[in-house]
Amino acid sequence: MPIDLVLVLAILLAAVVMFAINTPRMDVVAVMVMVTLPFTGVISVPEALSGFSDSNVILIAALFVIGEALVRTGITQKLGDWVAARAGHSEARLIFFLMVGACTLGSIVSSTGVVAIFIPMVLRIARTASIATGRLMMPLSVAALISGMLTLVATPPNLIVHGELVRRGEDGFGFFDFTPFGLPILALAIVYMIAMRRFIGGAVLAPPDPTRRSLGDWEEEFDLTRRILRLRLEEGSTLTGRPLSELDLRAREGVNIVAVERNGRGAGIGRPRADTVLHPGDVLVIDAMENGFDADGLCARSGACAQPLEGGWFSDRARHIGLAQAMVPPTSPLVGQTVTQARIRSRHDLAVIGLKHGAHAVPGALREEVLRPGDTLLLMGPWHAIRRLQGTRGEVVMLDLPGEADNVAPEAARAPWALLVIGLMVLGMVLGILPNVQVVMIACLMLGLLGCITMAGAYNSMHMKSLVLIIGMLPFSIALERTGGVAMAADALVALAGETSPRMLLAAIFVTTSVFSLFISNTATAVLMAPVAMAVADALGISPYPFAMTVALAASAAFMTPVSSPVNTLVLGPGGYKFLDFVRIGVPFTLITLVVVVAMVPWVLPF
């Protein structure tokens, strides 16, 4: 064995060991590989850094931005709502719609991101329907992994295998070339997970998130169910048909309106403005602790009906209106002013509905309460106003946002534009009018121009750890091919399976890729196995496409352990799983996937 091949294999073995023990971090290992490989003399420094200019790396980074735009515009949340509405309280229907929804979304954006988005929704549904979270989290992770088998852009391994084909002078894969394999596997997975749900294991009840306070917690802490009252305006109410400025309810009735809840046309919860005209059916959300306020008298005089603030009101409307806690620092100009004098609503579009002096909430009226250093304000208003205040300094210091803030779509009104851009992007990739990377980058620019995503959000959405991992591992394919390692591995696979059995070779490649994925990421596995699989095809003198497709599908079939993929790791805690839960459920389904792949790939992509 040549000495340069020995050196490259030694570096590869060291990288695999570090990946397996997860020390140091995977992206750090990738950087170590980039630094070390040029010292072998096999590749140059520019070749070691060539991943930074690889079009597939740029494409993957741009797809992270696309996924963030879907989150910011609320498209992902609406999909979650659709799943919950269709499923009802049936566990089997919930698993079906959950897997279909996750798989559909994951075919366009990162599967890891899909799971992160769906976990809070699944926990909420599990609590509401009294379903064990352990029966839902694993179907979610399996569907997210299978989403990588649906489209070209669904997962990095697909793009890596496609890029290897193009580098060898082939046309590569089309956008939907993976779909004929992914759909049957998804159908089998749904049947399998519904049939096996009683044996999955994991948590029985949905665990609360101990790291984040919820809106429900703040309702209790500030006693909002006693402080806040809702008044529904009936037909014929004297308050309807006129703007609030004309009604002047604060001066005449002692009413401090903090929000207007509208259920008809223009449904939602809005800030009360001077020009807001009230209509029958509107609900006024008011601070009922104002001095001199007589709710029964106002209802009798104006034709309104008092409604209590049910527990969970804020949580149920978290997408429309938010709460935040802010502290008044000693240097704030608000110190010594009353809540009214501070004019927080007129300047920041936020109403003060709770106040603490130290650890104790003020029980009475707030309008004339004098602000002191260290006071805690509970602010209510639109999420965009809360986030805008979060970025300011001086008057108040934002202390905390509730856990529900993570699921808010700040650009929900721009969802139609995002859907239009995503549709055009998919159409452009299907038709092949421009290179895929150019189509996706144009889509990113359009989403930015249309306000679906900000530059800060775009940069924050890029998972640099994943990108650096891909960049660092790409030089291995060059080094292994140049030293003869790829040809040696191909010869070993051919000798093992027999030269006259291409299907057996597909099975061997699938198993090898799956085994590698147990120890290293499926992205790194695809980088290593793609050139080997194509060298096997060259040795047999047959088409490389079946072998490339097998590598891509096997890289997504990371069902067997909780560390096979970040997708599995994400559901490990919320699902309450043990290591063997994945082994018991994942190994049989991996074998089912192997049978489907070996049977279908040569049929759709002939040798």
From TrEMBL:
Keywords (A to Z) from UniProt: Membrane, Repeat, Transmembrane, Transmembrane helix, Transport
Segments crossing the lipid bilayer: 30-49, 56-75, 95-123, 135-155, 175-195, 417-434, 440-459, 466-484, 504-533, 545-565, 585-605
Pfam families: CitMHS, TrkA_C
Subcellular location: Membrane
Classification via PROSITE patterns: NA_SULFATE (PS01271), RCK_C (PS51202)
GO cellular component, one term: plasma membrane
InterPro entries membership: Cit_transptr-like_dom, DASS-Related_Transporters, Na/sul_symport_CS, RCK_C, RCK_C_sf
Top-level taxonomic group: Bacteria
GO terms classed as biological process: potassium ion transport
Membrane topology: Multi-pass membrane protein
Domain RCK C-terminal residues, every copy: 216-304, 311-395
GO MF annotation: an example: monoatomic cation transmembrane transporter activity
Keyword Transmembrane helix: yes
PANTHER family for this protein: BASIC AMINO ACID ANTIPORTER YFCC-RELATED, RESPONSE REGULATOR
Protein's recorded name: SLC13 family permease
Organism from which the protein derives: Rhodobaculum claviforme
Lineage: Bacteria, Pseudomonadati, Pseudomonadota, Alphaproteobacteria, Rhodobacterales
